[in-house]
Amino acid sequence: MTNTAQQLDTTPLVDTGYYAAVTEAIRAEAARLLTDGTVAAVIGYQAGKRKGTAMPAIITDPARANDLIFSPACVNNLALYLTKAKKDIRKTGKVAIVAKGCDMRALAGLMGESQLKREDVHIIAVACAGVKGSGAATGEPLTTANIAKKCRECTVREPKGADSVAGSLPSLPELSPVEAEELARLEAMTPRERWSFWKEHFSRCVRCLACRSICPFCYCEQCMCDRNRPQAVETSPRPAGNMAWHIVRAMHLSGRCAGCAECERACPMDIPLNLLNRKMAKELKELYGHEAGLEPKEKGPLAEYREDDDQSFIK
Ligand code: SF4
Ligand code: SF4
Ligand code: SF4
């Protein structure tokens, strides 16, 4: 099958029975954990207000376990709810969280950064067939045409290290990569072309900071980009300040970003933030053999010094 033919294929990728089975397993596990007091709360997904949508849910009553669902609309990375920014949830006691493989990379990263202790969280992992990408119609099933770009080349569908796994992975066709092609196009540009590419995208940024609010790794209580005495980054959406904000953001997330693509999904201006994240991740893998979120590590390569680090860039 050609890439184009595959991308236009609108037949369901998986049987609806798969989502029903995952939902059933999550509900049973949530009810058990809340009833026997293992956890004080379960962070998962519930149906959204519009048919076919989903939204985050935090339940503390086992009678509400049947509100939980898993569907191709369960896009949010719920690891966000275990960060400092959401400290009220953590105060309730040990919590369970429903996590797709990409979300588990964020949990591992947060543990590596001492933001979360493994013993304080019960992970209900999902054997994940994928979720829908931005712009997919709400009533549609998951297809090769509407699956999120990140899911086309996912390597963490069967998460490891969870306390329980909901569902079993159905057989899936080989999907043509889209993210890898985007990255290859970016890398084929000259430095000047690449600068223009990012300058054009960043010029559209309205500094709403949705990308920061949704990121599990943007948990600083005072972001240096908000400081005005001294001001490190101009806060109004003008070209120089926008460029500075995006450089700070990209560097701060290098070696930490879990690749969940939530920042890109949240961006109202369609700025390809995850393309920049992936480029940075690729550089760190090539330079330091580092991949974020595969295991809890105390420090990424940009936060530690080793004598054998490459020094050739210092002139
Ligand atoms: S990237 Fe992988 S784990 Fe994450 S939603 Fe897509 S298929 Fe699931
Ligand atoms: S930078 Fe974006 S892709 Fe990376 S962890 Fe944060 S929200 Fe997810
Ligand atoms: S979400 Fe988009 S528009 Fe808003 S600050 Fe981030 S990059 Fe800019």
Automatic annotation (TrEMBL):
Q: Which residues form the 4Fe-4S ferredoxin-type domain?
A: 248-278
Which first-to-last residue range defines the signal peptide? none
The alphabetized UniProt keywords are:
Iron, Iron-sulfur, Metal-binding
Q: Which InterPro entries match?
A: 4Fe4S_Fe-S-bd, 4Fe4S_Fe_S_CS
Key word Iron-sulfur present: yes
Single GO term (MF):
metal ion binding
Give yes or no: UniProt keyword Metal-binding.
yes
Q: Spell out the protein name for this chain.
A: 4Fe-4S ferredoxin, iron-sulfur binding domain protein
Per the UniProt record, the source organism is Geotalea uraniireducens (strain Rf4)
Q: What lineage does UniProt assign to this protein's organism?
A: Bacteria, Pseudomonadati, Thermodesulfobacteriota, Desulfuromonadia, Geobacterales
